[in-house]
Amino acid sequence: MDATNSKQPTTRHSAPRNNLEDMVARRLSGEPLQYILGSQPFGPLNLAVRRPVLIPRPETEDWTVRLAESLSPSPARPLKVLDLCTGTGCIPLLLCHLWRPGSAHATGVDISTDAIKLAAENATLCGIPVPASPATQAQTENTFIPVLGDLMHPTFIQNARLQPPYDLITSNPPYIPRAEYNKLPASVKDFEDVRALLGETPRRNVPDAELPDTDRAKGLVFYHRIASLASRHGLLQRSGGTLVLEVGDGQADGVTRIIENNFGALVDKIDIWMDPWGKRRVVVART
Ligand SMILES: C[S@@+](CC[C@H](N)C(=O)[O-])C[C@H]1O[C@@H](n2cnc3c(N)ncnc32)[C@H](O)[C@@H]1O
């Protein structure tokens, strides 16, 4: 074969190349730097990131580290962890990295196949084993299982083959109200999955939950469903369980009310954690 012809011709439509000129062009088009570089630090981890999976944010990193420090699981009393809306897998992977080996077995669920693929890749990058099922997980290591699933589906728990109850449920769900979503900069809207951002679903209602129109407009749809799954559907331990929900600016009181309405007397204590910029960012409920 002629050596000169063995080279593939370059076309304008080929996959993005990583030379400096292309990278600058992509940045000038508004693409976030993390997608161009393909990585984002998250605590001591360096996670792979790829369009359209949400780039992990510093406020999420901050509360995940705080959560890891506030619980002290041990191999004698390992925690069963469920992360709903897992994206890159950042939250459970950081917990698994920070806790002692054998003290946590995490599952992360997401509706996006891109996210689940990336979460599995990130587990490998971070050295966290991915067992085929909870039955085959090594007891001496922290493990992570990424699962494709739609938490709005009426039979979500069975479809995703979850094995409740969990000791710890974490979630950073989509929470941006539509009115705010419409005003987001193109560098976010054009690159990150709408399903990762918009606190709404195509379904008019969420299964088993009363959803006032006002809460829909405030981007609180996912909190209704998560609280219902955790309490009425028994995903969270009824005693000694912890539910940790990241919330948007101004949503902490609404989410606290949703938890109180769903859990009733089962909830022992609810705390609000601030983010480093002074915003009420996380609702932590203990049963
Ligand atoms: C705000 S992102 C959070 C991602 C990651 N946990 C983080 O903190 O960077 C929300 C995630 O929820 C997922 N999601 C949206 N609707 C969902 C659904 N119905 N069921 C499961 N996951 C869903 C999106 O694909 C997205 O990855």
TrEMBL record:
Gene3D superfamilies: DNA helicase RuvA subunit, C-terminal domain, Vaccinia Virus protein VP39. GO terms for molecular function: protein methyltransferase activity. GO terms for biological process: methylation. SUPFAM superfamilies: S-adenosyl-L-methionine-dependent methyltransferases. CDD domains: AdoMet_MTases. Keywords: Methyltransferase, S-adenosyl-L-methionine, Transferase. Residues 1-20 are annotated as: Disordered. Residues 1-17 have a biased composition (Polar residues). Residues 18-38 form the Release factor glutamine methyltransferase N-terminal domain. The keyword Transport does not apply. One of its GO terms (cellular component) is mitochondrion. This is Release factor glutamine methyltransferase N-terminal domain-containing protein.
